[in-house]
Each structure stands twice: as C-alpha cells, then as structure tokens.
Amino acid sequence: MSDEWVDVVVVNWNAGDCLRRCLNALRASGYSGMTTVTVVDNASTDDSAAMVRDEFFECRLVVNSTNYGFARANNQGVALGKAEFVLLLNPDAYVAPETVGALSQFLADQSSVGAVGPRLLNLDDSLQYSCRAFPTIGAGVFRQTPLGSLFPRNRFTADYLMSDWPHDEARNVDWLSGACLMLRRSALDQIGGLDERFHMYCEDVDLCLRLHQRGWRVCYLPTTRVVHAIGQSSNRAQGRMIVARHCAMLRYFRKHHTHGIKLLLTPLVVVGITARCLGALTRLSFNRARDRWRGRTS
Length: 298
Prior knowledge:
By secondary structure, this protein is α/β, with parallel strands linked by helices. Helix content is 43%, strand content 20%.
C-alpha cells in the first residue's frame, strides 16, 4: 500500500511553530504521493495560516472565519478528500518517516479494522498513554483528582490508561487518541463522521465507541511512532480548555450513559465532573498566583 491512498487532515488553532514542524515532518516522510494534505485553520490569530500558504504550497488550506471546534473542522477536511484512508493529525504531532505508510498498510491488510493509531511519545521520548479503556465512573473519581494523588496506583486509573501493559505489541483497544488517528473512510462514513457537538475533547472516545458499535475493530500499532508535544495549542487558554474538557465529559456521559439503570447515576456524575472542573480551575489559579509571587520576589 502506498501513501497515495491517504488523505491527511490537520486542524490548526494558533499552533505556530508546532504546525510548521508537523508539516515539515510530513514533507520529510514523502507525502507528495498522498492524495491530499489539508490544513483547516480555526480562525487563528498567530499568522499560522499565512505560514502554511507561504511555506507549504502543496497543502490545501481552509481558513475558517470562526473557531468551529476540532470535530467540525476535521469533518470539513475529510469531506474534501476521496482517499480510502484518512489520517487525523494534530499540529503538535510529528510523524516518523514510516508512520503514514505503516498505518495505511495495516488498514489495507486488516479489513475488519476501522481505526488504527501509532505509539505516541512525549518530547523526551517517554511513552504517552494514547490507547485506553473506555472511561468508567471509577476512572473519573481517581484520574487527575486529589483522591488519585492519594492512591496513585489505584486499579481504576491503571485499567483506564492500560498502564500495566508495556504497549509493545499490536492489539485491539477500546479507543485511541485523536492526536494521530488513521481511519478507514468507509467506516467513518458509516458512523457519520465525528460528532460535531463535541467542540473539543472526547470526540475521539465517542468516535471509537461508535466504530465498535458498528462492528469495527480499533487497533494500536506500536511498531511506528509519533512524537506528540501535547497541549501546545490548548496551553494558550488553559482555563477555557479545562472548562471545555469537562463539558465534553458531561456530553459524552449524557450521550452514552443515561439509559436504563445508568440514568440513576446522572446526578452523581454531574456533581462529580463539576467538582473536578472547579478543582482544576482552583489549582490553575493557585499556580498562576504562586508564579506571579515568585516573579516579584526573585
């Protein structure tokens, strides 16, 4: 399978130099044979769209007048292509030369797979937990909360992150990070694309769940790697991103877990997610105040 069977979609929001590095990594991998590379810019204010126009003439550029969110912008880019496979790639994710070919070849060889993702690495080459189990209430209680800090080795977090497995072999998983996710177009069309009600966050969890519901496999392929400088765009608006993440969590729960007996858990989950969001905002405010104080006294 050659790379010409792949459409690459990169959604950008003020990613600046990260976007340049992302597109340079794609260019170095020989993407000239791919069907399209589309950058969808969500009303950036950092001139990154102009950078794409000036430096990456081979890319298709779509410039939105407002920030449509991650899911809708990806759907825009996907709709412009016709290739059999679609690679959704974050602007802060940098592919290795073999990544696109390896992922597309895997999909070509495995007709029952609807989505595949590579091993993601942090900037220091440490493992990033990019394949995970579907979220549970237990994971919500312990994951990135004060209770989780008290019990860092709790089973709920370990199961959610799949951290008790070395991530060294291909396997079926519940869901994969949308930072670098290759999809079979027919599978994506079957489920109706990304759910645009998720402005940002949880759209990848929702996408993979809907693939499973239609009988598609979701697979992790650690033999190829991508460096993901996580949060380079979202760190520019941390408070807003914290709120957006927790709103997405609530939307995901309402969409998939308010049927039957689970409906009785709704008040508890809403209170828990709200408290988690307020706690994260409080920690952010405290850290900013501490940093300002240190700056004045240094």
